[in-house]
Amino acid sequence: MAQVASHFKLNTGASIPAVGLGTWRSEPGEVRGAVSFALKEGYRHIDAALIYGNEHEVGQGIKDSGVPRNEIFLTSKLWNTHQPNVKEGLERSLKALDTEYLDLYLIHWPVRLVPNESSELLPVNPDGTRSIDREWDQSETWRQMEEVYESGKVKAIGVANWSIPYLEALSKTWKVVPAVNQVELHPFLPQHQLWEYCAKHGILLEAYSPLGSAGAPIMSDESIQDVAKKYDVSPATILISYHVNKGVVVLPKSVHEKRIVSNKTVVELSKEDVTLLDGLAAQGKAKRINTPLWGWDLGFDDWYSPVAISG
Ligand SMILES: NC(=O)c1ccc[n+]([C@@H]2O[C@H](COP(=O)([O-])OP(=O)(O)OC[C@H]3O[C@@H](n4cnc5c(N)ncnc54)[C@H](OP(=O)(O)O)[C@@H]3O)[C@@H](O)[C@H]2O)c1
């Protein structure tokens, strides 16, 4: 079988491994071993975030692996409560991960949450709604991201969960074009227009929740299983390979050794099969899985959640 890309290029010129290990909901006690095992098995890309609450263990896993830090592509994300002070958020992640620098630092959501006595990282108002500052100017957060980029403590900066209208608004003031936009992407949420927009602006897309997040629900879809049979691989391999075949980085999460090993397998798909997978959402299977209460008005055209609107 022909080879598909193992790495892509960022607009900084740096190389990024096409498959990275996700760490969201990788529990304390599990994630250290998962990260160390993955690195020993050849992964060179780890996707972390302050809000995952496990960066300390991710850092330990990196050390345990014995793989030199400069051979690893390490991403972390600025949490929503740290938007007014990017340096502070970054320092916290660097300390927890026990590293001098990040290869990529992302704004986790284009949303500022205002900490209060209810919670430091996930604050709510007295009526139970999220404590969100909708007036906060994202271009100010990006300006501070540009500052930490200039400091050298992060080798690239980018965003996560940014729709086209949000990117367009940011483009009016950005000096540094985001290297990456990390969003939910899979055949049920292919985001074709965002794919085109990012390609046009040299922003590399990264696919999160490629298997449908907890429990990997997309793997059981009949069409995905049919394609998997055709290539004699698992449905997970098809869902992971789909992105790499489209020039998109993919971040499957697992804490199980067998899955960690098999999730780095990428197969080349025919154009017809990529088109088939691209078309599933339009055939009535469209579904967004990650819908936090601050997400509903972020300009994604598929987003509709009456429950979320109340939050
Ligand atoms: N920027 C953001 O806002 C954002 C949001 C969501 C996710 N992310 C990033 O993207 C990563 C991936 O997304 P995700 O964690 O939501 O979900 P995912 O990778 O789509 O799916 C993870 C789930 O699939 C299971 N799984 C993994 N490989 C499997 C396999 N080969 N066969 C069967 N089941 C398998 C995992 O279980 P086990 O662990 O038990 O194997 C887990 O339950 C995250 O970990 C995080 O790093 C970013």
TrEMBL record:
- Where is the NADP-dependent oxidoreductase domain positioned along the sequence? 19-280
Q: Where is this site: Lowers pKa of active site Tyr?
A: 77
Whether rRNA-binding counts among this entry's keywords is no
Gene Ontology MF: a single term: oxidoreductase activity, acting on the CH-OH group of donors, NAD or NADP as acceptor
- An example Pfam family from this entry, by short name, is Aldo_ket_red
What keywords would UniProt list here? Answer: NADP, Oxidoreductase
Where substrate binds, per the record, is at 108
Q: List the InterPro entries.
A: AKR (IPR020471), Aldo/ket_reductase_CS (IPR018170), NAD(P)_OxRdtase_dom_sf (IPR036812), NADP_OxRdtase_dom (IPR023210)
Q: Where are the catalytic residues?
A: 52
Q: Which family does it belong to?
A: Belongs to the aldo/keto reductase family.
Protein name (database record): Aldo/keto reductase family protein
**Organism field:** Lophiostoma macrostomum CBS 122681
